[in-house]
Amino acid sequence: MPPKASPFLMFNDRLAEAVALYVSIFPDSRVITMPRSGPDAPAVSAEFVVGGQRFMAYAAGPYFKFSEAFSIFIDCEDQAEVDRYWDALLAAGSTPSQCGWITDPFGLSWQIVPRRFMELIGDPDRKKAQAVTQAMLTMVKLDVAALEAAHANA
Length: 154
Description:
Helix content is 34%, strand content 25%. By secondary structure, the protein is of the alpha/beta class. The protein folds into two domains: 7-64, 2,3-Dihydroxybiphenyl 1,2-Dioxygenase, domain 1, CATH 3.10.180; 66-154, 2,3-Dihydroxybiphenyl 1,2-Dioxygenase, domain 1, CATH 3.10.180.10. It has a four-stranded mixed β-sheet with strand order 1-4-3-2, with helices on one face. The longest helix has 13 residues, at 79-91. The chain starts with 7 loop residues before the first strand and ends with a helix.
């Protein structure tokens, strides 16, 4: 049975291409359905899973645009996982922003975040946690070693 709530994404075009990219990059991902109005017609909607999260999507035309008010947070086990997802999104034509954010070629924003960052900013020593936050604010792709150094040197 599908979950009660799922993000619903409105793409202006290239829905099938976007879904194919997402399921190719992230483990525990798959297309559930992707109906088309004809054999050679573009996809009109999709139901898919990325990293275990179910999504719904619709090819809505140029009426909607994504913004950073909605992003997909990817919890990464380590720097190698951060690098793998970041590099795959870059290779697909994504645009890096800052603080671990990257916008894919379809306009959807992703946060590629090492789990260690979340641990470090949760340190009860607020000085250390703030030093990690300040270091993160200077980064484009998050760097675990630099975040740990900021924590250690605070």
